[in-house]
Design goal:
With 379 residues, this protein is α+β, with helices and mostly antiparallel strands. 32% of the residues lie in helices and 20% in strands. It contains 12 helices and 17 strands. The radius of gyration is 22 Å and the shape is globular. The two termini are 24 Å apart. The structure holds ligand EPS. Ligand EPS is lined by residues 9, 46, 48, 132-134, 136-137, 310, 312, 334, 336, 342.
Length: 379
């Protein structure tokens, strides 16, 4: 399957085209809209989310609630475009409006400076509009379609926020406890830790500063053997890392015990293997995070994703105006203080995309019935 996204943050719309979905996959549009609403929520979000009420329109590939096997096009219109049309239109824009919205005081940590140099632009808006995390809205919509494909096979995805700017939840949670995170303000499962995290966000907001954090995403029910040990490009852990690192503001991805394996011995890290007639092969621990040799091993897949603090600071950092080359304070208009709840929803969407692609690669199938029969036939 192949996913292409398009769209600028203040342009008319965000678009996703998914090629290669089998026919007869039931599409739950309300489910997509619920994921979109979750992505917009969470403590610490900025005022843009009050303007938008993201809602998907399916333009192609679905009829009477089921895929046809043709490319599926998803669209989320940007309500804010109405306020930006005079400087974001594909036709001739109003030069005064373009000047007013031009960004030349490039923000450290954002796309601005490297982007204007690479694409020979005089206004960083021509690169930041696409680089904006607004693009994640359409990835969440597409991810929900992939999740529905996986769900039809009995593969489920869930996650939670385990750290906000140094405030950490060290708890161990069962998979079925994770969904409760969606009913909280910050996606955290321990209410005392969440309260401390909110205090941290409030303090940073007062300072005109921002916060990042860490989320964990888990996949349950995926049988062994998805991914590949034979070609590096198809290794499941490599694909998860690529997909997750491509999310705006992500700086780190860990699988299973992740970086902590470096300080431990082999005996402390590798998961011993057992066999029972009724259960088949199993492990009593899962430090591998469900992936060995670039393939799923049948245990839960566990990934952790680290997000840097959002680079638009209300009290901007020192920078250079690339027109005058003079020192100045970086541009800021409005910003989220913390978007970690959103990252958790986006990371689930990206994990769904990667796992669904690994399933499609191995099983193929023109119809969901074919895919399901092939999946069920595996051990
Ligand atoms: C976002 C929309 C953007 C930002 C944010 C995420 O809206 P605006 O630029 O109009 O305020 O709030 O984008 C960024 C963090 C970024 O760096 O561009 C969204 O819908 O998630």
């Amino acid at each position: 399957m192949k996913l292409t996204t398009a769209g600028e943050s203040h342009g008319k719309a965000l678009i996703a085209v998914i090629e290669g979905l089998p026919a007869h996959l039931s599409i739950d549009i309300d489910g997509i809209n619920r994921a979109l609403a979750l992505r917009q929520s969470g403590y610490g979000r900025g005022s843009r989310q009050q303007i938008e009420k993201d809602c998907v329109e399916i333009l192609t590939g679905v009829r009477n609630g089921e895929t046809l096997g043709s490319p599926v096009t998803l669209c989320v219109f940007n309500k804010d475009y109405a306020n930006w049309e005079n400087c974001m239109s594909a036709g001739t824009c109003d030069s005064k409006a373009m000047q007013e919205k031009a960004l030349t005081k490039v923000r450290p940590g954002h796309v601005d400076l490297t982007g204007v140099l690479k694409y020979a632009q005089e206004d960083a808006r021509n690169v930041l509009e696409r680089a904006s995390a607004r693009e994640t809205a359409i990835r969440v919509a597409a991810g929900e379609v992939y999740r529905q494909y996986l769900s039809a096979l009995g593969v489920e995805i869930a996650g939670y926020v385990c750290e906000v700017c140094g405030v950490k939840d060290g708890g161990m949670y069962a998979f079925n406890e994770l969904s409760a995170s969606k009913n909280t303000d910050l996606g955290m499962l321990d209410s005392a830790i969440e309260a401390l995290s909110k205090e941290k966000i409030n303090a940073l907001q007062k300072e005109g500063d921002t916060a990042g954090g860490v989320v964990e995403v888990r996949v349950k029910g995926l049988k062994s053997g998805f991914g590949s040990a034979m070609t590096y490009a198809e290794k499941l852990d490599g694909q998860l890392a690529q997909g997750l690192m491509s999310i705006q503001a992500v700086k780190g991805v860990e699988i299973g015990a992740g970086f902590s394996v470096a300080e431990k011995s082999g005996k402390e890290v590798h998961d011993e293997i057992f066999y029972e007639e009724s259960r088949g092969y199993y492990r009593k621990s899962n430090r591998a995070g469900g992936i060995e040799g670039g393939m799923s091993n049948g245990e839960e897949i566990v990934v952790r994703v680290a997000m840097k603090p959002i680079p638009t600071l209300m009290k901007g950092l020192s920078t250079i105006d690339f027109n005058s080359k003079e020192s100045c304070v970086a541009a800021s208009e409005r910003s989220d203080v913390c978007a970690i709840f959103a990252l958790e929803i986006i990371a689930e969407a990206v994990v769904a995309e990667v796992i669904a692609n690994a399933v499609a690669k191995r099983l193929g199938g023109d119809t969901m019935a074919e895919v399901k029969a092939r999946y069920d036939a595996l051990n």
